[in-house]
Every structure is written in structure tokens, then in C-alpha cells.
Amino acid sequence: MFVKMYQYYIKRENEEAFILLQKKVNIIYSKYLDKHTRYWKSMDIEYKWYEVSTYQDKESYLMGIQKVNEHPEIQELFQEFQALLIENKEIKEDNLEELLDLKREG
Q1: What kind and span of H or E run contains 41?
Q2: Is residue 106 a part of any domain in this protein?
Q3: In a domain? residue 102
Q4: How far, in Å, CA of 44 to CA of 48, rounded?
Q5: Mean pLDDT of 19-35
Q6: Cβ atoms of 52 and 38 closer than 8 Å
Q7: Which residue segment(s) compose the domain that 41 sits in?
């Protein structure tokens, strides 16, 4: 399993627009990638959000993301996303691989 994790800061007044935008983006991503994405909002730091997407493996992600990036609408949607962010806060990105998956026992 391959995982992409992003951390960014969304202005509170833009949260609804952010959710609608992510639904549009998901339609494009789903055409080219088999993925599962979840979003979390920090309970400790106001405006801080996490996005975690899981993919079958890194190779299939790389092949699919190339097609996503060639999609005519994706750059426009990314610009819309950037407009929803708090200024001077960078988007942090991390690539992860699953090493251990513990299930609840008992």
C-alpha cells in the first residue's frame, strides 16, 4: 500500500467551498486512480487539516497521477484550492508505505 499525506490550513469561512472543491477533484482522480481519501480537521490547531489518500502501490499511483495532471481542469481546480488556504502557510506533503496494520483483538 502507498499513502500520500498532505497537511494544510483552510480558512474557516472557506471550509464549505473546500469540501465542494474536493468532491470535484475526486471525480477526476477516480477516473485514473483506485484510491481512498479521508480528511481530518485538527482539534488542537484551528484551521489545520490533513488529507490522507491510500493507493494500491506507488507504481500505480505514479501512472495515474500523470494522467490526472494532464486533465484540462486539474490546474484550475488546484488554483481554486490554493485560494482557500491561509496565506503564508505551506502545504506539507509526505509519502508513506504501510509497515504494520494492527486490528483490534478480543
Answers
A1: strand 35-41
A2: no
A3: no
A4: 8
A5: 97
A6: yes
A7: 2-11+23-97
Give the span between the Cα atoms of 45 and 36, in whole angstroms.
25
Query: Tens of pLDDT along 41-82?
Result: 999 998 999 999 999 999 999 999 999 999 999 999 999 999
Cα angle, residue 81 at apex, residues 34 and 25 outer, rounded to 5°: 25
Helix (H) or strand (E) holding 18: helix 15-32
CA distance 18 to 11: 9
* CA 2 to chain CA mean position, Å: 13
CATH of the domain at 37: 3.30.70.100
Grid cell in block for residue 16 = 464549505
pTM of the model as a whole: 0.88
